[in-house]
Structure formats: C-alpha cells, structure tokens
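Deliverable D2.4 — example input (structure tokens):
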C-alpha cells in the first residue's frame, strides 16, 4: 500500500468516534522506516479556528479498511 492510498482514507478515533481528518504527511527515519503519520485535524468550526496537526504511530492504528483507518488515541 502506498502513502497516497492511505491519504485518501478518513481517520476515525475509536475512543470517541470522532473523525480526525486525513493523513497529510509521514515522518520517515534515515533507515526508511515510518515513525508516524501526520493528520490534519478537521474542525467543524474551521473558519474560526486554525487547523491543528495530530501524530499517529503504528501502535495507535487498530484497523485499516477500504475507506477508513481506525485509530485509538
């Protein structure tokens, strides 16, 4: 699976059912291993608030489906 495939999927937090947003970037080590994904949080009132970024590690990912990535934060 390519990073571009993951970027098309919505990220949903299993803890509260909230949609976090989508992956916008990945942090890669010198050895080529992905350390974490960067998700741009979508806010309902995004016109009034600035967007924030959340980092998600592989240990926080619980399931990668066809349309969504389920995480536990």
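Example output (designed residues):
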């Amino acid at each position: 699976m390519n990073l571009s495939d993951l970027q098309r999927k919505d990220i949903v937090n299993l803890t509260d059912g909230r949609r976090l947003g989508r992956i916008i970037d990945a942090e890669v080590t010198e050895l080529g291993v992905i350390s974490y994904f960067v998700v741009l949080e979508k806010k309902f009132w995004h016109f009034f608030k600035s967007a924030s970024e959340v980092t998600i590690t592989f240990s926080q990912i619980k399931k990668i489906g066809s349309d969504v990535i389920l995480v536990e934060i």
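The helical segments are 3-7.
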